[in-house]
Amino acid sequence: MLKRPSKLQTTIDFEKNGKQTGYIRLPHSVHRSAYGWLPIPIACIKNGSGVTVLLISGTHGDEYEGQVALSKLINQLKPEEIQGRVIILPMANFPAAKAGLRTSPIDEQNLNRIYPGDPDGSPSFMIAHYIESQLLSIADYGLDLHSGGSSLHYVPSAVSAVGENKERMKKMKELMKAFAAPYSFFFPSGHADGTTNHAASRNNVVLIGTELGGSGTVSPECLQICERGIKRFLQACGVIQAKTQIPASQTRMLHAPDFSYYCYAMEEGLFEPVKGLGDEVMKGEVAGYTHFPETPGKPSEPIYFEADGVVVCKRIPARVIRGDCVFQLGCDFAI
C-alpha cells in the first residue's frame, strides 16, 4: 500500500524554514463539486536542522481538547523558538472533525483503525495512507491527542500500547513522564489494530497518545494539562529549548494487563453507574445497574467489575446495549 503514490497534495514545503499554514488537498468528486477537494488543515514550523515532531488531533472528530490546543499552538509557536521541525495536523480526519463525529460521515471509517490506509480507497483510507507514507515517514517523534469523545470520559492520561520492543517502551515511558498528565496508561496488547501507534512503529517513530477528558466538551482543567503537556513533550524531544521550566506533577503509571479490565453492559437499557473516575475498585464489586423502564416490573441487572483497579474511563450516555463499554480499569505498572 505505502509504495503506491498518494493522490493527496499540499502546498506546504516541508523543507522550507519558517512557519507555513495551509491544507492537504484530498480529491473529492461529488454531485455538487465535480473537481472538488477536501481541505485538511496543516501547519509546518521549521528552523534549521534537528528532529521532526508530528502533532496530531482530530483523528476522532468529537474529541476537541487536542483540536483546541493545537489550533492555539499554531498561532503561538515561532520558528525562532525551535530547532528542527514541527508538523501539526489539528483535524486529521477532516470530514469527521467538521461533523463532530467519531467516524467520517462520508465513509463511516474510524481513522485510528485503518492504517496503513489505501491511496485508492475512500477518503479515510486515503488520509491514513498520506499520514503514514508522507508524514510519519519523515518524523522522529509523534503525539496523537485523543479524549473520550461523545461516549466516554477519561481521567487525564498520556497513553500508549504495550509492545515487545523494550527500548521503544522505555522511550515512550520517558515521554509520558515528560507530558506529566496525572495518569499514564498502557492499553493491553491486541487492544486495536490499524492505529497511529502501529503506523509509527512501522516508521520507527516514537509516538505516544493522550486521553484527556471527553464527554464532547472542553474543560479548562484538561485543556491546561494538554497545553502544558505538549510543550513539555516538545522539550523532551529536543525540538524546543526549556527557557523556563513548565510545572509538572508526577504521573501515575497504569496498564490494563488483559480485557478483564474492561467492564461491559450485557443488556439493553439505562445504565446507572455507582463508581466514578479515579475510584479504586475490587473484582466482584458492583460497577452499576442496567434498568429497563420499557419493561415495567423487570428487576434491574447489576454489572460487576472483573478485576481490581482504578477507574480510568467511564461511559457518558446512559442508554446502553449489550457490548457497550461502561468502565475501563487500570492497575499500577512497574517500571
What's the short version?
This protein has 335 residues and is an alpha+beta fold.
Describe the structure.
The protein has 335 residues and is of the alpha+beta class. It has helices at 65-76, 94-99, 123-135, 166-179, 196-202, 220-237, and strands spanning 9-10, 18-27, 37-47, 52-56, 84-89, 141-144, 152-161, 183-187, 206-214, 252-255, 262-264, 269-273, 280-281, 286-291, 301-304, 309-315, 319-320, 325-332. The chain has two domains: 9-255, Aminopeptidase (3-Layer(aba) Sandwich), CATH 3.40.630.10; 259-332, Beta Barrel (OB fold (Dihydrolipoamide Acetyltransferase, E2P)), CATH 2.40.50. The chain is 21% helix and 31% strand. The protein has a five-stranded mixed β-barrel with strand order 7-8-10-18-16. Strands 15-14-12-17 form a four-stranded antiparallel beta sheet, with no helix packed on it. The longest helix has 18 residues, at 220-237.
Tell me what the CATH architecture of the largest domain is: 3-Layer(aba) Sandwich
Q: Order of strands in the sheet with the most strands? A: 7-8-10-18-16
Write down the CATH class of the largest domain. Answer: Alpha Beta
Give the DSSP E fraction (strand runs of 2 or more residues).
Answer: 25-35%
Shape: globular
Derived structural class: alpha+beta
- Rg over CA atoms, rounded to whole Å, is 20 Å
Q: What level of helicity do the residues show?
A: 10-25%
Largest sheet: 5 strands, mixed, barrel
CATH overall fold name of the largest domain: Aminopeptidase
Give the N-to-C terminal Cα separation: 37 Å
Question: Number of domains in the coordinates?
Answer: 2
| Total count of helical runs of at least 4 residues | 6
Count the beta strands: 18
Task: Write the H/E string, N to C.
Answer: EEEEHEHHEEHEHEHEEEEEEEEE
Low-confidence stretches: none
